[in-house]
Amino acid sequence: MGRIxxxxxxxxxxxxxxxxxxxxxxxxxYRLGFPNREVRESLNRALLDDxxxxxxxxxxxxxxxxxxxxxxDFDGMRDLxxxxxxxxxxxxxxxxxxxxxxGRYASVLYAHFAATGADVRAEESGSVGRADLSxxxxxxxxVFEFKVQGRGGALAALAQLKPRGYAERYRSLGEPVRxxxxxxxxxxxxxxxxxxxxx
Length: 199
Prior knowledge:
Helix 2 (37-52) crosses helix 5 and helix 3 (56-70) packs antiparallel against helix 4 (74-86). This protein is globular. Helix content is 38%, strand content 30%. The mean pLDDT is 81. Strand 6 and strand 7 (190-198) form a beta hairpin. By secondary structure, the protein is of the alpha+beta class. A 5-stranded mixed sheet has the order 3-4-5-6-7, with helices on both faces. Strands 1-2 form a two-stranded antiparallel sheet. The protein has 2 domains: 1-35, no CATH class; 37-198, no CATH class. It starts with 5 loop residues before the first helix and ends with a strand.
């Protein structure tokens, strides 16, 4: 039997459903999404259980993940992100070439925030580009840009957010918008720099 694409498996099991479709050049194309919030949260919780295991330490991290953004505690957010990444067993990294990709780190943060029920959007496009991750929760919006070490650092990530206007779509909400630039090391597999700004 051949390999089954993860999205096909998730569609067949009901974790994903068709949310939109169109015909292009005689071919049908579909956009898949979660059928509801409960399915999205349970899938991300199951993925986190597989990645990090369950137990007291994990419960503490989830509690912190709710408290830290609500309090706009940037130092706490940086420390929590470092803790989450440090909890991934080193053998899982192996010879995986993803260590040099921003998406590897973004996916860990995405799964954690999605499991809390926050409105999380990855690679959401705007008029001049796309932010790596946006999280709307607790009456505020966090817009993240990630860099892997050697590609400009956290200040460059933060600087990229502003001129490209990634946060503009959220200004009309009347909620504080927090810009977060994060740099990761492919060697230590963790956060090396963390910069923030509220606009």
